[in-house]
Amino acid sequence: MLCKGKSEVASAFARVAFAGRDGWGKIEISQLKDTDPNELAFMFGALEGFAFHNEILSLFQNIDSILFEGVQEDLKEYVYDFVSKNLEFVETEKYNSDLMTNQKALFDGLVFGYGKASTYDTALTKQQLWLISMLSEVRDLINLYTKDKTVQEYDLADKYFLNGRGITILKLVYGNQELFLGQNVWSSYSQLVKLHRTYYFLNQKQNEENKNDIRVPFMSMSGYPGVLGSGDEFFTLSNGIGIAGNHYDIIYSQNENQTYSISEKGFPFWMRIMSANIQILLNNSFNKHFYIENQSSAGQIVADNIMQNPLSIGNVQLIVVDYNKFKTFKRKNGNQQQTQYRIIKQMNKLTNSTAWLIETVPYDEPKSKQNSFHSKLSNTSQNQIKRNEQQSYTGEDIQMLDISDILQDNMSFALTSIPSSELAYQRAGYNDYVQKDSVNKSLHQFKLFLFGRIEDNTTQFNSVINFRAKIIENEQKKVHDIEGFKYLIRYNDYSSDTESISPSREPSSKKDKYRDPCYSISPRCELRKIEKQAIAIGAIDAKVTSWLMMQDTNFISQLGPTLSHQLPHYNVTQLDSLSHFAHNGVPEEIDKCRWIQRDWNNSLKISTMSLFVLFASILCLLILIAAVVFFIITFIILLHKERKEMASNIKMYEGIDINVGFQTE
């Protein structure tokens, strides 16, 4: 038990499994008695920092090596100065929300636990640990203040894939039989250090109200060691809410009059999304066992929380799915251990608020109002989200849309780490960046290929058409079950897919050599061979959930580069010579990149009946053990007594001669 001073941090139960052949580390923490929420959060962080201190150190070393590769020293100093000032703000700020205080306690616990486990040689500073959780914000800072030198196509592609964050796909099966939510993260293979996390929250008030049937609310997520808000942005909540999304980059803009209102005086995204998740989790209006017609929108809660004093960097696009509104059910016989469900209501059409798209928007202001590296605190956090008749919400720094009807009409919806809202697409610099090379037709076509374009539409959200979106549109039609969706989320058929060919290349009889393993749903950029420099970048993990899996708040995941269409296995020894690769703590190989399911019990239940059954079972076991022990002792005593009698009888005949003869006639 970790201790802080003379008192225990918290009373809790934890299970930790270190990364094995599947590549995933696992940590599960549950509260065993009523504890102050901040102490509980502190304990969550402390156990992760203590148990995974080696993995946290490895991740930081890899990130520091790659993130600042080729970055000028003054910019690196500015980034660390920004991180330090942001940490100072968070530590001194008087929070408007108890949940923000809770997230601060989570980080304090991480620092404490890591410090207990690390040695002088392996110690990371508090500032360095804070930088790990602010990875998305730091990437944007570097992009904003790095002059664009990507005039060659492959240089541009490398930058895109190095910073490109991933895809998120929502797929509706024909007849509304199933609703899949999946995410595939792409990045440097240096970040192949991953965790499954499960946090249980015991609500004492709920326990008092209904002592016979209390399901402990919990949250499961994937992420990186030390990155407390996941970093992947993939969460499943025990009350039927699934959240998945990507960060997108602010790319360098040639518009000298446009810059961004960035301030160190704000909350990083990880604090805001974790606060949103806990608020949803402890909200009794979300009940995954019964349908509630007028319950609050999970999307609204997420949007409200991520608007709390943002930094304007580390922008994100999220899909929030309320699986309670997809189908409704109840367990057979009310048995918690049953895994089969009886559907009591199935929607002929998706209802409003089943799925929401939320996208944060960089806040810009005239350059004359800002300093070179530093800028004034924006007032965007004071903006109110306004609802219009199209089930959408708009604000200066957020765009939000109910995509239930769009999903029903198109049967799928995808995010490709390119802004979906026209406002974000322009403010993040994509429109200027794509159009500025219109004279150079080859480069212009290539930028359209990578970053797409915004199609004219009647809503503030539009379709981004790029090579990956086209592949998803073509392949999603083949998905009819979970196996088909797993195939889609890890798809890479670059050797045959025509969408994997850059349009800037002239047709030739040898066009196959222009096919690029980077240009697919699940990239494998290290497999480049001809005319292109291989880089250790690709899709590093995938996560998938569905309505059926969400009944037990489960998801399946696969770590490592895709093996789609018989692509070769990943092996770390083959990547040593590649750029953008540091492999501290990265597994040398992963066991066939198999899909795994979180295998710990995720239906923890506190109830009077279950406790009675538990105690009765223990009592029966003790009685059985006592009976076995009594039988063994009795058997030994009887055996000893029998042997003693035999020895006594033998002793009676000692010293007596017995003659045996035969009488003959």
Provide keyphrases for this structure.
single chain; 665 residues; alpha+beta; Penicillin V Acylase, Chain A; 2 domains; eleven-stranded mixed β-sheet; 18 helices; 34% helix; disordered N terminus; disordered C terminus
Report on the structure:
The chain has 665 residues and is α+β, with helices and mostly antiparallel strands. It folds into two domains: 3-480 and 536-602, Penicillin V Acylase, Chain A (4-Layer Sandwich), CATH 3.60.60; 605-633. The protein is 34% helix and 19% strand. The chain has an eleven-stranded mixed β-sheet. Helix 1 (37-51) packs parallel to helix 4 (98-117) and helix 3 (73-92) packs across helix 5 (126-133). The N and C termini lie far apart (93 Å).
How is this fold's topology laid out?
Layout: E1 3-4, E2 7-8, E3 12-17, E4 24-31, H1 37-51, H2 53-67, H3 73-92, H4 98-117, H5 126-133, H6 135-144, H7 153-163, E5 166-172, E6 179-188, E7 194-200, H8 204-209, E8 214-215, E9 218-223, E10 234-237, E11 241-247, E12 258-260, H9 269-281, H10 298-306, E13 316-322, E14 327-331, E15 341-346, E16 355-360, E17 364-366, E18 386-387, E19 392-395, E20 398-402, H11 404-410, E21 412-415, H12 422-427, H13 430-435, H14 441-451, H15 467-475, H16 482-489, E22 537-546, H17 547-550, E23 556-559, E24 595-597, E25 605-606, H18 608-652
Parallel strand pairs: 4-7
Antiparallel strand pairs: 1-2, 3-4, 5-6, 5-21, 6-22, 7-9, 8-25, 9-10, 10-11, 11-13, 12-17, 13-16, 14-15, 16-20, 18-19, 19-20, 22-23, 23-24
Helix pairs in contact: 1-4, 3-5, 4-9, 7-14, 9-10
